[in-house]
Design brief:
The chain is an all-alpha fold. 59% of the residues lie in helices and 0% in strands.
């Protein structure tokens, strides 16, 4: 009786740990955004430096831009930022802003 309970408890705990340690940045961010913004969100990649990519870890940037602002920029593009509205779904763009860009905010 005790062994099955321990095994079950261990599996549940392992599942919770996997769920709780969700990757940041996401695979979507790594595929579409990291080339310029970097996996650390600082925009210091060669391409990011060339295009003056935004630093997502910057407190001022995080406070100045609303989610709606960022969704619009990702969707339609702006300055040197390409538009992703035809490549990504609305839900993907919202997820990138909510989970990835906002995930770089200093805690």
């Amino acid at each position: 009786r005790t062994l099955p309970a321990l095994v079950f408890g261990g599996l549940v705990s392992f599942g919770l740990v996997l769920f709780a340690t969700e990757d940041h940045p996401s695979a979507l961010f790594k595929e579409y955004c990291a080339k310029c913004h970097g996996e650390d969100g600082r925009g210091q990649t060669p391409k990011g430096k060339q295009l003056n990519a935004r630093d997502f870890t910057d407190t001022q940037f995080q406070s100045d831009k609303s989610d709606a602002d960022l969704i619009k920029i990702v969707t339609k593009g702006g300055e040197d930022m390409p538009a992703f509205g035809k490549k990504l779904t609305k839900e993907q763009i919202e997820s990138l802003v909510r989970d990835d860009v906002r995930g770089f905010r200093k805690k």
